[in-house]
Design brief:
469 residues; mainly alpha; Growth Hormone, Chain: A; 19 helices; disordered N terminus; Na+/melibiose symporter and related transporter; membrane
Length: 469
């Protein structure tokens, strides 16, 4: 038996099964495949298939994304505050709501009735489908802290989950477009994305059910014996507030996580401008995306080995600084397109490591919070991971557009006539701003995230002693 397994048993936990070590994350792969339909096709559906005007498209997407962002903090708070369901406080949600998502999600891509009626249906479907999938999403991430009783276990789960989630980026190019083309041929062009969303939504629900089965026995469920015991996993509004404001490592991590997500979304959004106006070869973007995503998957998988050697905190900090250095080199050689592709792909390898390590860091703040407040706020803190994600999505366009405006960008400019000023301005968006965000994230974690591996283990032991008393 491994040292981590012995420690888990000593702390009253069940060691991770082989299924969890290998297959935890398949649900996240399904989730990402499903949400990629929205990421890649929602705007196109609204403009080209539903034939809404641009102002109406802007209204639909703005209302939906704003409401989604405003609700991002609430899911974990609800999971932590309500009475646990039949199969546990978090695990139950892996089976309760995912089956509703395909039916709700499909209506995002279906035009019914007049323009006004259709717009309302699409907005409501977008908001409600996101609510329905965010509860199991938060519950799924929360299970890392529930099942992972040691730092090694949490790093293992976070790494495997990240590898599967990032693998979906590679798989979608082979799954999404062919599915859409199939339904366009056999249903209609207008309904192709609704059918694709429904199909991948079913796929997500099935794979979340796989997670549900894998986590059997890892979360305490209410029985006649446990019903009389005080439930430390149920929290009031005051408890939730304390777990946030009395948790400096969590506040620092939220800011660092925002910077990490900014790197991801700004790089993604600005890449097309680099390959159009700087490389002047849009075809190379497909090569970049494929290579970068493959390296991202590899980085996610390898993160657990690095984290076990260096600790999750140290791995994340070193990775963020190393990514920034690589990107500054890429910026200095911005006109050497192949070198930029290589260096930015290496940065995505680092992003895979950082993406995998972050949930484990959140799990450490959950332990610190319970040690300090006496209340287990797993769902609340896990749910807060949604906030940096949603905020970064909202600010992505602002950052990219500001960089383009500063470089005097205009859609009328012929790529072959792009000035050096424009090329450098695009590289600021594609490379420099994300690199600066990574430096800020690294500094924040170095200066403000002081939860070392030894401290976390100490806190866990003290929590276990309290419960045993």
């Amino acid at each position: 038996m491994s040292e981590a397994s012995k420690t888990a048993e000593n702390q009253g936990g069940k060691p991770l099964s082989k299924a969890l070590k290998v297959f935890y994350g398949v649900g996240d792969c399904g989730f990402s495949l499903m949400t990629n339909v929205e990421s890649y096709y929602f705007n196109f559906f609204l403009t080209n298939l539903a034939a809404f005007s641009l102002p109406m498209v802007t209204l639909i997407t703005t209302i939906a994304s704003t409401v989604d962002a405003c609700l991002s903090w609430i899911y974990g708070a609800i999971l932590n505050s309500i009475k646990p369901k039949k199969w546990g406080r978090y695990r139950s949600w892996l089976i309760l709501l995912p089956w509703l998502v395909p039916f709700l999600y499909a209506f995002q891509f279906i035009k019914i009735g007049s323009t006004a009626v259709s717009a309302v249906i699409i907005i409501v479907a977008t908001i409600v489908s996101h609510v329905a999938w965010n509860f199991p999403y938060v519950a799924n991430v929360s299970m890392i802290a529930v099942a992972g009783k040691t730092p090694e276990d949490r790093a293992q789960l976070a790494s495997t989950r990240a590898a599967w989630a990032n693998l979906s980026k590679v798989l979608f190019s082979y799954v999404g477009p062919p599915l859409a083309a199939f339904f366009a041929a056999h249903l209609s062009e207008v309904n192709q994305y609704g059918a694709t969303a429904f199909t991948l939504g079913i796929f997500m629900a099935v794979l979340y059910f796989a997670h549900f089965k894998m986590f059997e026995g890892y979360e305490e469920v209410e029985t006649s014996q446990t019903a009389a015991k005080k439930d430390t996993t149920r929290t009031s509004g005051g408890d939730l507030l304390k777990s946030l404001v009395q948790n400096p490592p969590l506040l620092v991590l939220l800011l660092a996580d925002l910077a990490k997500w900014m790197f991801n979304f700004v790089c993604m959004g600005a890449a097309i401008y680099y390959f159009t106006y700087v490389a002047q070869n849009k075809g190379l973007m497909a090569t970049y995306i494929l290579v970068a995503n493959i390296l991202c998957v590899i980085g996610s998988y390898l993160s657990k080995f690095v984290a076990n050697k260096l600790t999750t905190r140290t791995t994340t900090i070193i990775t963020f600084f190393a990514m920034a250095v690589v990107m500054f080199v890429a910026n200095a050689a911005y006109s050497n397109v192949m070198l930029v592709i290589i260096l930015m792909s290496v940065a995505q390898f680092g992003y895979g490591i950082g993406y995998a390590c972050t949930p484990a860091l959140y799990a450490d703040t959950i332990i610190y919070s319970e040690w300090k407040t006496g209340k287990n706020a797993t769902g609340w803190i896990s749910g807060l991971q949604n906030v940096p994600l949603k905020v970064s999505i909202m600010t992505r366009g602002i950052i990219i557009n500001a960089c383009l405006a500063a470089a005097n960008f205009s859609t009328k400019i012929d790529p072959a006539s792009a000035t050096e000023e424009l090329k450098k301005g695009i590289c600021v968006a594609f490379i420099v701003v994300p690199a600066i965000a990574l430096i800020i994230a690294g500094v924040l974690l170095l200066a403000g995230f002081h939860l070392t591996k030894d401290k976390v283990v100490q806190y866990q032991n003290e929590i276990a002693a309290r419960k045993a008393a």
